[in-house]
Input
Amino acid sequence: MTTVSIRRALRPLGAALALTLLATVATPRLTPAHAALSAAAMAPFDRQFIDMMVPHHMSAVAMAQIALTRARHPQIKTLARSIISDQNSEISQMKIWRQQWYGSAATPDMMHMPMLPGLTTGMGMADMNALKAANPFDKAFITDMMPHHQLATDAATLELAHGSHQQLKDLAISIIKGQSHEEGLMQAYLDLWYGGSMGAMGGMGH
Output
């Protein structure tokens, strides 16, 4: 076989190899974490809402538990007990629905809370260690919990617009009413005790 014949025989092989290399470069390789995020983003909206709201509620409960031991004002301790009771109950209910509708009650933990489309990552999430050491604690609790509640009401508003299960929409309405009321109480306490100032911590979106 001549040199020219060999080159002609190998030419289709080279083209096939080039196509294989091109396909390899053009196809992104997802890490397990990115693959999980991609799958979550394509999940039914109600499941996305549950998977965000359960760890979000868990963080509110954790903040409230700190307040039971550190708060100076009895009003803050009363609010903390209400948050723990209400949000633990809602967590349990959402996990039941997740099991019934999607075959698993498992949700992300607080450190890996996914965000709904249109919401800012990390907005309203408190630094637990900073909260434990804060002084005055009651002001820190209020200025952390108010944006935390706002994030919950924003997510619940999205659920009303995009959700499909009426039970979850009813819960969203309850979240909006309950947490808006608690935000009003906290603003009143902030005005009464601290002159209404959010200070350096307010609006930082912990």
The chain has one domain: 44-201. The radius of gyration is 25 Å.
